[in-house]
């Protein structure tokens, strides 16, 4: 990718930023030691901390959580104008400039972890005026038109409140059975023009071509998503105070769809299901981060990145190890590779199974990251159940031999075994659970809008999505067996039937999901709980050592 020409720096006003507006990765960035998640939200606070560690973080600005409770009329462009000027100076680009345009992402970030519950918008600032300059910057017409069509679709769905299926259907019409990453720039240009027409038709007005209008609309949409039904349901489920609010992070865009060695990924520094100290990463070449976490695309393990760009893979491992050591816990991180260059976009404490929580805490003690007292405080009392897992023994009498004949396989996002009736939507899940019947939720995509149904179901099976999709992260947090990206699964909502390979099932028939090896079986099964004796012994030894030292009782 051609180097970005140097342009004169944008003058930055000498006056201080308005209260509750912060910057990171800039010459006069805010300092993490004077702030906290309550002001910045965890996303921006951790970005600031990574930037202070010298890690590759694109610069950005943050509208703090205090702005979430402010009236929308108070959140005008004047609030972030000076911070945006400092972001322009740090990037060497200008927002809305026809020659050297700055494009930004707009993301939510609360003081508590709420994965996938609120909105994200990418490529803000791209329009008919800035598009030629972006093309000159990158020399990559496919990237330009891919970014533009993504912006129109996500802005339409998030800000204009259009049905996302409008754009998905148009994509399917043009692409047929091809992956969207196989479309060339001329097809993406055609698709963008169709998206613009759809936007005008269904929104009743043209897509906004003023970057400042786009940015203001995106910021308002992200703040508004704090009160979305799914966010409210998540807060109620986890006892989160609605008054804490969310911050909004505006950050320079980097592009995983830039061609060459480019892509986007999401990962954990350790296996979140078992706690094993190995990286657990989903990566997509020629993609943006939302492709992985949205639950609408299948992703792959890290092998594609490790094989295509081994130096970048090693750089990622080293960077995430530093973050884990600095923050003192297993991390869930997002990253982008643009033309062979690594950027870190997010890190947060990773959701994990109970068994993984024990293993990770004990390993961190042995590695010198945590003290024994810190590990004990983090875990609380631990019994044998937390140090074990459920596995299939044999098929139930009268059912098929589920343990011997898998119907299909998928990527496992949460270990364990779950059996239940097939349910295709929330209404069916609620109906059958009210009757006391265990159910499994089967969906095409792993999306967080299914949160209420997932809370009631015993497990989730999807035909698309990645292990690190937001919905899969939530399923793991809820302890639900979760299999994603099952290519053999086809769902016909009109006839309320599903196909798994060559077998067809009606809604209400029973399946079993084995999250231990990613298998799907017909019928019910018998299970047993197996305790990890070594893990339990390690925990008890730690408790005994603390007792001997007079620190506290053994668990």
Automatic annotation (TrEMBL):
It comes from the Bacteria. GO terms for molecular function: ATP binding; kinase activity; pyruvate, phosphate dikinase activity. Residues 439-518 form the PEP-utilising enzyme mobile domain. Residues 75-297 form the Pyruvate phosphate dikinase AMP/ATP-binding domain. Pfam families: PEP-utilizers, PPDK_N. The lineage of its organism: Bacteria, Pseudomonadati, Pseudomonadota, Betaproteobacteria, Burkholderiales. This is Pyruvate,orthophosphate dikinase. Its EC number is 2.7.9.1. Keywords: Kinase, Pyruvate, Transferase. InterPro entries: ATP_grasp_subdomain_1 (IPR013815), PEP-util_enz_mobile_dom (IPR008279), PEP_util_AS (IPR018274), Phosphohistidine_dom_sf (IPR036637), PPDK_AMP/ATP-bd (IPR002192), Pyruvate_phosphate_dikinase (IPR010121).
């Amino acid at each position: 990718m051609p180097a970005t020409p140097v342009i004169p720096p944008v003058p930055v006003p000498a006056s201080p930023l308005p209260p509750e507006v912060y910057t990171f990765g800039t010459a006069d960035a805010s300092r993490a030691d004077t702030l906290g998640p309550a002001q910045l939200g965890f996303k921006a606070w951790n970005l600031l901390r990574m930037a202070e560690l010298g890690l590759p973080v694109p610069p950005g600005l943050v509208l703090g959580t205090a702005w979430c409770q402010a009236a929308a009329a108070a959140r005008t462009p004047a609030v972030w104008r000076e911070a945006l000027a400092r972001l322009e100076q740090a990037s060497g680009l200008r927002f809305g400039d026809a020659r050297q345009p700055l494009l930004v992402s707009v993301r939510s970030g609360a003081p508590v972890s709420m994965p996938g519950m609120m909105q994200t918008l990418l490529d803000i600032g791209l329009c008919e005026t800035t598009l030629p300059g972006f093309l000159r910057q990158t020399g990559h017409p496919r990237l330009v038109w891919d970014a533009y069509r993504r912006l129109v679709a996500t802005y339409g769905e998030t800000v204009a409140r259009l049905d996302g299926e409008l754009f998905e259907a148009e994509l399917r019409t043009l692409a047929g059975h091809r992956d969207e990453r196989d479309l060339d720039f001329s097809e993406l240009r055609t698709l963008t023009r169709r998206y613009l027409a759809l936007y005008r038709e269904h929104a009743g007005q043209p897509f906004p071509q003023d970057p400042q209008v786009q940015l203001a609309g995106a910021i308002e949409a992200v703040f508004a998503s704090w009160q979305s039904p799914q966010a409210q349901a998540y807060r109620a489920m986890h006892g989160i105070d609605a008054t804490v609010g969310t911050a909004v992070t505006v950050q320079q865009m980097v592009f995983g769809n830039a061609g060459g060695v480019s892509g986007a990924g999401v990962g954990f520094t350790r296996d979140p299901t078992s706690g094993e100290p190995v990286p657990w990463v989903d990566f997509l070449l020629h993609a943006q981060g939302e492709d992985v976490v949205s639950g609408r695309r299948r992703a792959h393990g890290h092998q594609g990145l490790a094989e295509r760009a081994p130096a970048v893979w090693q750089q990622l491992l080293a960077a995430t190890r530093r973050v884990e050591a600095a923050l003192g816990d297993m991390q869930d991180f997002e990253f982008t590779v643009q033309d062979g260059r690594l950027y870190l976009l997010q890190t947060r404490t990773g959701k994990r199974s109970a068994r993984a929580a024990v293993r990770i805490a004990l390993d961190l003690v042995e590695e010198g990251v945590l003290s024994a007292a810190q590990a004990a405080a983090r875990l609380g009392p631990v019994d044998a159940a937390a140090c074990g897992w459920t596995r299939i023994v044999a098929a139930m009498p009268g059912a098929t031999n589920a343990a011997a004949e898998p119907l299909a396989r998928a990527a496992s996002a949460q270990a364990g075994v779950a059996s239940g009736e097939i349910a295709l939507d929330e209404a069916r899940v609620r109906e059958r659970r009210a009757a006391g019947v265990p159910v499994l939720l089967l969906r095409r995509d792993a999306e967080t809008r299914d949160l209420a149904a997932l809370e009631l179901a015993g497990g989730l099976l999807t035909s698309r999505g990645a292990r690190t999709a937001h919905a899969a992260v939530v399923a793991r947090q809820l302890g639900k067996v979760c299999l994603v990206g099952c290519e053999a699964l086809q769902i016909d909502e009109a006839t309320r039937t599903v196909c798994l390979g060559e077998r067809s099932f009606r809604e209400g028939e029973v399946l079993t999901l084995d999250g231990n090896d990613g298998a799907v079986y017909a019928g019910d099964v018998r299970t047993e709980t197996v305790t990890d004796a070594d893990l339990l012994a390690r925990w008890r030894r730690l408790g005994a050592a603390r007792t001997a030292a007079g620190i506290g009782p053994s668990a």
